[in-house]
Amino acid sequence: MSPYQAISLDFKLVDKPVTQADFTYSITPTTISITDTGKGRCSVTNDIEAVLRKIEYWHQGSISGFKIMYRHEHGASAGVRWDGQTAPFFALRETDEKRAMEKLRGGSLNKD
Description:
Elements: E1 23-27, E2 31-36, H1 48-59, E3 67-71, E4 77-80, E5 89-91, H2 97-105
Parallel strand pairs: 2-3
Antiparallel strand pairs: 1-2, 3-4, 4-5
C-alpha cells in the first residue's frame, strides 16, 4: 500500500475539562441540578462555564437544551441559561429545592 492510500488514526485522549469548583449534580432527561459543595478553590458561581463544560464531557454531548438549576452551598437556587459559551444566571427566588425545580420547569406551584 502506498503512503498516499494509508489511513492514520490518532487515539490521543481528549483532555478532561478542569474546574476549580467542587460540586455534585443530578441529571434527568430534561433537567440538570448542580449543587456547590463549598469544598473547591472557588464557588460554582465563579466557575460556572467550566462546571458546565465538565458536565458536557461526562454527558458526552451538549447540555444546552436542558433546564439547569444551580444551588449554592447555603441553599439559594438560581437558573442557568447555557448556550455552550456563556452561562447567565436568573433568579428562581426559592430556597426549597422542589419548588425551585418546579419554577425552573415552568410549572405552576400549588399553594398549600
